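User: Here's a protein and a ligand (iron/sulfur cluster). What would the complex look like?
Assistant: Let me lay out the input and then the predicted complex.
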Amino acid sequence: MSRWRDGEGMATHEQSDLPRERKMAPTMTKAETNYRPASFTNRRCGVCSMYKRSSPLGSCTLVKGLIDPDYVCKKFEPRSKPLSVPESQIA
Ligand code: SF4
C-alpha cells in the first residue's frame, strides 16, 4: 500500500520548485548597485553571500548579468561561513 495519495509527491515537487526559481532571479542592475572593481580581497563578489560560483565568471542572486569574483557592489554581504584559506596565505 502506498503512503502517498495519487499525485501528491509530484504536485508538491512542482509547486515548491517554481516559486523558488522566481525568488532567486536577480532584480538589480550593475549601475544601481555601483558594481565596480574591488579594492579589498575580503570585500569582493567572490566572498559575498550572494555570489554563485561558476567558471571563469559567476552570477549573483541579486545583481543581473555575469559577475566577476574580483568586483564588488554596495550590496555586499560577507558569507556567514568564511572560505577556508590555506595557512600559507594567512598573514
Ligand atoms: S558584491 Fe554585489 S554583485 Fe557581488 S555577489 Fe555580492 S551582491 Fe552580487
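Summary: The beta strands are 36-37, 51-52, 59-60, 71-72.
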